[in-house]
Design goal:
Blueprint lengths: L1 H48 L7 H20 L6 H14 L3 H14 L6 H14 L3 H14 L3 H17 L3 H15 L3 H16 L3 H9 L8 H17 L3 H12 L8 H14 L3 H14 L4 H17 L3 H14 L6 H35 L16 H17 L3 H22 L3 H12 L8 H14 L3 H14 L4 H6 L9 H16 L3 H14 L4 H16 L4 H14 L6 H18 L10 H5 L19
Helix pairs in contact: 1-2, 1-3, 2-3, 3-4, 4-5, 5-6, 5-7, 6-7, 7-8, 8-9, 9-10, 9-11, 10-11, 11-12, 11-13, 12-13, 13-14, 13-15, 14-15, 15-16, 16-17, 17-19, 19-20, 20-21, 21-22, 24-25, 24-26, 25-26, 26-27, 27-28
Length: 637
């Protein structure tokens, strides 16, 4: 009997020890997965709250930690029930880190290893987006359309339709985007994603100038289940629609009503911003300037403050002609919100104003040299510069003047001095027209060149500029008059040949580069890929021009902020820094390059150690009440 009791006691102890070991093992891999999931959720939450979805180093570290913990689950506990979740977290973390090549590989490994995973439909949506980011657009659409045919869940179908619509919208294929947003609303029924789709439909129709349709679209958002945030955005968009359609009274009434309601406090800044834009539409520039200035004070450090700085900068540059103040306001945009949609354009405008001030100094210096010589050519001589005796005869005075002017001619390169003078006049005229929208000032400076008789190598170029400017303004009478003058005075001018599309003659690298640059800017809103191609051709054909410099920086910015293509962005920022080290924009390009370099270093860091002891994970504290269970995982997972 004692032997039997002893045996049972030993068996019980063995079972308890075995159970404890098993429980400890399960706790270890569950704790590891739990921490991976928490890091992933924290990174995703911070990314969603970041303006324009820009990823910081801190956010990247969260995703790196999620990948490290998830890799431990797969390597140390390959038979656990959370390995598919861990694999999904790795793929999604790399996607959010914008390492799309790694994410693509991760998704494909996930599909191969876990074909029956409950997360597969969600993973297929993100895989399609990943393919799109990598430029494989046709494959991305094929993948998503195949997924939507396979899933039965209406909610999942709606998500896939929405993803396809977003991809089409991002490439400016608006008809297809509208079609798939429409499918989202029909399939999603009363889901928030249907409300967002309907809101996007309104935005697209506003972009297409379908004002009445956009208003109807926006009113229909309420038929679905808009979030509180979307309801706020609806009010802002409605005010914008009223303003852009010329319904100023309706816009003002809507804005003032919302501003007088404390429940709208979280969007007061945006409403005041819309009011400022309304004043601009009504040509009340003083009121607009005051409103935007108030926004910068009341909402300092917020995205709306950055946008207000940009708008008041435009007002000072274009309407009030206070370029010094405008330059300071444009420079403030990035300080208020480095991810502002206006940050790059504001930097460009600040640089243009700086360039304007520099050219003004060059012009003043050139005129100081030219003026005395110009006066002498017109027979006006400053006798104080000539040393003669008080009782000198008239013929002696005349001879002294002739010798003085002859000596001056020996000591000055007349053509070069006038060339610098005309060049500065021409560049200021260009800035007035193309950048500051000051047509009258541009004409004044072009006329200074056109009416000058001495050593003028710029006159045919200036006649071409005047022709181009008035033709662009739609004034065919004035443009025709300048063209006739160009034909009469300079029949062999390359600028005339260019206008008449005769045998290809390149008139001026700067002019050709400038016109191409304007084409590239116009394409930017329609087809970003074509815009890049134009900017690249400027750099290739006219690398020493000012507009080549602007083109290289524009390409870098597009790859950085539009495509999130780190390799190409780094390449073009590096090209800019090396090719144009004296540029006014060098202080903008270097920090951008350094930020991307930090990101690239973190991407290329050695892979995390996945062979750590289980005890390390056992020691990580996991609050029991926060532990998620497989059946209750959120849809995002």
């Amino acid at each position: 009997m004692k032997i039997l009791l002893k045996t049972l006691q030993n068996i019980s102890i063995t079972l308890i020890i075995g159970f404890f070991i098993l429980f400890s093992h399960r706790c270890a891999y569950f704790n590891t997965f739990y921490n991976a999931e928490q890091y992933f959720k924290e990174g995703k939450k911070e990314l969603e709250s970041a303006e324009d979805g820009k990823i910081s180093i801190g956010i990247r570290k969260k995703f790196n930690s999620a990948i490290e913990k998830a890799n431990k689950v797969i390597a140390n506990y390959p038979d656990s029930r959370w390995t598919d979740d861990a694999s999904y977290i790795i793929a999604m973390s790399n996607y959010y880190k914008m390492d799309f090549s790694a994410a693509k590989r991760n998704f494909e490994e996930y599909f191969a290893n876990y074909p029956a995973s409950e997360l597969r439909p969600q993973a297929e949506i993100w895989y399609g987006r990943c393919l799109w980011k990598l430029g494989e657009k046709e494959l991305a659409l094929h993948q998503l359309n195949r997924s939507v045919r396979r899933v039965k869940n209406p909610e999942m179908k709606a998500e896939i339709f929405f993803a396809i619509a977003e991809l089409y919208q991002s490439s400016n294929t608006l008809d297809s985007a509208l079609q798939y947003y429409g499918k989202t609303t029909k399939t999603g029924r009363d889901l928030p994603i249907a409300a967002q789709a309907q809101f996007n439909i309104a935005e697209i129709n506003l972009l297409r100038n379908q004002i009445d349709l956009a208003i109807d679209n926006l009113k229909n958002v309420s038929k679905y289940s808009p979030t509180n945030e979307l309801k706020d955005r609806m009010q802002i968009l409605l005010a914008r629609i009223y303003r852009e359609s010329g319904k100023f009274d309706e816009a003002r009434e809507l804005i003032n009503t919302k501003l007088n309601n404390i429940s709208n406090e979280n969007i007061w800044g945006d409403l005041e911003y819309q009011l400022g834009l309304l004043y601009i539409a009504e040509d009340d520039f003083e009121a607009a300037s005051l409103r935007f200035s108030q926004i910068t004070e009341k909402y300092s450090g917020k995205p709306v403050s950055a946008e207000a700085y940009y708008q008041v900068g435009i007002l000072n540059m274009v309407h009030f002609h206070d370029y010094d103040k405008a330059q300071k306001q444009f420079s403030q945009v990035k300080r208020e919100d480095k991810n502002s949609r206006y940050a790059f354009d504001a930097q460009n405008k600040a640089s243009e104003i700086k360039r304007f001030f520099n050219i003004q100094k060059q012009l003043k210096k050139a005129w100081e040299i030219v003026e005395p010589f110009d006066r002498s050519l017109r027979g006006i001589v400053d006798s104080t510069q000539i040393t003669i005796e008080d009782d000198a005869r008239p013929e002696d005075l005349k001879k002294a003047i002739e010798l003085h002017e002859e000596e001056r001619r020996k000591n000055i390169d007349t053509s070069a001095v006038y060339n610098d003078y005309y060049k500065s006049l021409y560049e200021i005229a260009e800035l007035y027209y193309f950048n500051f929208e000051q047509v009258d000032s541009a004409v004044t400076y072009f006329h200074k060149i056109n009416r000058s008789k001495y050593f003028n190598m710029f006159r045919d170029k200036t006649l071409y500029a005047l022709y181009y400017m008035f033709d662009d303004e739609g004034d065919s009478i004035k443009s025709g008059a300048y063209l006739d003058t160009l034909r009469l005075l300079y029949p062999d001018s390359p600028y005339l040949a260019f206008i008449e599309k005769r045998e290809t003659v390149i008139p001026s690298e700067e002019i050709m580069a400038r016109q191409l640059f304007w084409d590239g800017e116009k394409l930017f809103e329609v087809n970003v890929d074509s815009s890049i191609a134009v900017f690249n051709s400027i750099y290739t054909q006219y690398p020493t021009t000012y507009y080549a410099e602007k083109s290289v920086l524009s390409i870098a910015w597009i790859y950085h902020h539009k495509y999130y293509d780190l390799d190409n962005a780094m390449k073009w920022y590096d090209t800019f820094i090396n090719q144009y080290p004296e540029s006014e924009n060098i202080n903008f390009a270097k920090p951008e390059y350094n930020t991307l370099n930090d990101i690239l270093l973190s991407l290329n860091a050695p892979p995390p150690d996945t062979t750590s002891l289980e005890q390390e994970d056992l020691e990580e504290e996991t609050p029991e009440e926060d532990v998620p269970i497989k059946e209750e995982q959120s849809e995002e997972q």
